[in-house]
Amino acid sequence: MRTSGSLALLLAGLLVAAGCAPSASASRDPSAPIRVVTTSTVLGDLIGRTGGDLVAVTSLVPPGADVHTYQPSPADLQALAAAELVVMNGLGLDDWLADMIETVSGGPQSRVPIVRLAEDSLDFELLPGDEPDTRNPHLWMDVGYAIRYVDRIETALVAVAPERAADIERESGSYLVALTELDGWVREQIATIPVEHRKLVTFHDALPYFARAYGLEVVGVAVDAPGQDPSAGEIAALIDAIRSSGVKAIFSEDQFPTALIDQIARETGATVVADLYSDAVGDPPVTSYEAVIRWDVEHMVEALR
């Protein structure tokens, strides 16, 4: 990510001022909520549910925006300067945040801890990304992996405010129960789809962890990454794959254009479902991570069953 000159100057000033402040652990009011900045609204909801009233979360990327290509604003930089903890996904999804900090601070060090939820853990079996030697970042679409995200968030919050450890663990424990029940519900719903129909095509590669966890097959994707147009040959190959495999539906998220998948659907007879969510929450009723998963699963089951 490249910041504009004025934006870089503003961020530099904010981070210099923040760097002169005492460390979060030394200066924080133990009765105040932990100020957390994250990138996407999905991660923001996971953090908010993990910490409850003990956290104040700012999600930089608003609903409806694309986390892959987001450009931060001056207001985002002010929130970042005041943060006690920064939480991002990593694996290339939202690396613009770390790049922004490093660019203006002259190095990778920050006055606040930065947690990359999808990285630096042996708990995850990572799948390939859209470029050589990369990994797909959409781990949270597997609810089992979202549970592990919550464990990492809890650990990070306790490190910032160890005096609130018992309260944080209580909030987190309650949320983990809800997510475990959600994981079981997803499995029950997917089981109602005939095995031969558990195949799908997606606009971009947002569902490989979901598919692996719940017994679906992603036959192909329309674009390698948001903002990249496929060649005519790639479109033709995808159309052939849909026809030969009997894919019934093509799925896309709400924030992406549908012209390409509409074209593919006309050629194949597949149904287009273009109102899923993965990187962001949406308008009511899709205003939480749990709601995202339930919405997506209900629409998938309806289209594939």
What this model shows, in words?
This protein is α/β, with parallel strands linked by helices. The chain has 2 domains: 5-184, 3-Layer(aba) Sandwich (Rossmann fold), CATH 3.40.50; 189-304, Nitrogenase molybdenum iron protein domain (Rossmann fold), CATH 3.40.50. The chain is built from 11 helices and 8 strands. Helix 8 (208-214) links the parallel strand 5 (199-202) and strand 6 (217-221). Helix 1 packs parallel to helix 4 (74-82). The chain is globular, with a radius of gyration of 20 Å. The termini are far apart. Residues 16-26 have low confidence and may be disordered.
Keyphrases for this structure?
305 residues, alpha/beta, Rossmann fold, 2 domains, four-stranded parallel beta sheet, globular
Quick overview:
This protein has 305 residues and is an alpha/beta fold.
CATH architectural type of the largest domain: 3-Layer(aba) Sandwich
Please state the CA-atom Rg, rounded to the nearest Å. 20 Å
Work out the strand percent.
5-15%
Derived structural class: alpha/beta
The CATH superfamily title of the largest domain: Nitrogenase molybdenum iron protein domain
- In percent, how helical is the residue content? 40-55%
Strand order of the largest sheet: 2-1-3-4
The counted number of beta strands is 8
CATH class of the largest domain: Alpha Beta
N→C terminal distance: 42 Å
Count of DSSP helices?
11
Order of helices and strands: HHEHEHEHEHHEHEHEHEH
- The domain tally reads 2
Residue stretches low in confidence (pLDDT < 50, at least 5 long) are 16-26
Characterize the largest beta sheet: strand count, sense, and whether it forms a barrel.
4 strands, parallel
Globally, the shape reads globular
- CATH overall fold name of the largest domain: Rossmann fold
Mean pLDDT over all positions: 88
